[in-house]
Design a protein that fits this description.
alpha+beta, 2 domains, six-stranded mixed β-sheet, 14 strands, globular
């Protein structure tokens, strides 16, 4: 890790949270924080979920990756990138939410609203759906910071997928707040908004006890 970055970081299990050292100094701008993210070592992902804080995550574990891949596969019929119809579905893409930056595991844009996603990074066109795969080390930030951020930004739909609980929670944005509207678990077959086709959750979850990380 870069020396200057290391001096400003407090290590947390599975995560590095970079905070300002001097509370009296002026808060850094989005561009300054994004420049800090650009300097991160390879294999680390940075997000701006709070004022003057860069949340840094390492690469996800096997359960997380498996659930993300299963979700992407289940939505292939809606994914215009895969000759489906209706949605552009991106994986682990930087998205700017005003003065915040998030990197959802999956995010989707309705083709009828966004006929062609711009070639930019981070993306500034807000999505119509975000999906976060919850792991023990990210659950707190996913629920406390990301889910409210998506709702405040008027993202209509958000999913939280928890491989440890074998559970999918579907939230709709109502008056700028996330409202839980339905769930799916284990090996159910359900139609979950905002998508219109039935999804089988059989195969989303790896067997065995969940990790304790």
């Amino acid at each position: 890790m870069l020396p200057a970055l290391q001096r400003e970081c407090n290590a947390v299990v599975g995560e590095v949270r970079c905070c300002m050292v001097d509370p009296a100094r002026q808060r850094r701008t989005f561009d300054e924080l994004y420049a800090e993210i650009a300097r991160l070592p390879e294999g680390l992902t940075g997000e701006i979920l709070e004022d003057d804080v860069v949340h840094v995550m390492s690469r996800p574990g096997k359960r997380h990756r498996h659930a993300a891949g299963a979700c992407l596969d289940a939505l292939s019929g809606a994914n215009a990138y895969l000759r489906g119809t209706g949605w552009w579905i991106e994986v682990v893409t930087e998205i700017r939410f005003h003065q915040r930056l998030a990197v959802p595991d999956l995010a989707g844009w309705r083709v009828d609203r966004v006929p062609d996603l711009p070639d930019e990074n981070p993306l500034t066109v807000l999505p119509d759906w975000c999906c976060a795969i919850v792991s023990p080390r990210t659950a707190r930030d996913d629920k406390r910071l990301k889910l409210p951020l998506f709702a405040r930004s008027q993202v209509p739909w958000s999913w939280l997928v928890d491989p440890s609980l074998r559970l999918v929670e579907v939230y709709q944005t109502v008056n700028g707040l996330p409202a839980l509207v339905t769930t799916a678990q284990d090996d159910e077959r359900r139609v979950l908004p905002p998508f219109e086709h039935e999804i089988s959750f059989d195969g989303w979850w790896l067997p065995g006890p969940p990790p304790t990380e």
